[in-house]
Amino acid sequence: MTDLTDPEDADLSSARPQSAPPRYSRRLSDKILIAFHHACDQGDYEIAEQLLRILETMLTRRTVPPDANRRKSIESLVAAHERLWHLRHPEQAYT
């Protein structure tokens, strides 16, 4: 029979105070960009394009205060568009 009061069986999420916000290691836009590259790696270009549209919407809307990493994010978006174009047009890639 299992002892329900055993501390090793306790839920680890209860160790965090209830008022503390959840911690995330990456921005949502970074996760979408990762998903885009994963879709490209699997050859699912339609999903990759939809993810790029979502990412573009996120990056082009105005934020208050302005995002300090906006330029880097826009450069990543442009590079992602270029990758998708080259994947869809392999005969014209890098000419």
Explain what you see.
This protein has 95 residues and is an all-alpha fold. It has helices spanning 28-41, 45-60, 70-88. The protein has one domain (25-92). The radius of gyration is 21 Å and the shape is globular. The termini are far apart. Mean pLDDT is 82; it is low at 6-13.
Q: How many E strands? A: 0
Overall geometry: globular
**DSSP strand content:** under 5%
Structural category is mainly alpha
Helix fraction, binned, reads 40-55%
C-alpha end-to-end distance: 70 Å
Radius of gyration, whole Å = 21 Å
**Major β-sheet, in short?**
none
The domain count comes to 1
- Return residue spans where pLDDT drops below 50 for at least 5 consecutive residues: 6-13
Mean pLDDT: 82
SSE string, helix = H, strand = E?
Answer: HHH
Counting H and I runs of at least 4 residues, what is the number of helices? 3
Topology overview:
Elements: H1 28-41, H2 45-60, H3 70-88
Helix pairs in contact: 1-2, 1-3, 2-3
Short summary of the structure?
With 95 residues, this protein is mainly alpha-helical.
Name some characteristics of this structure.
95 residues, mainly alpha, 52% helix
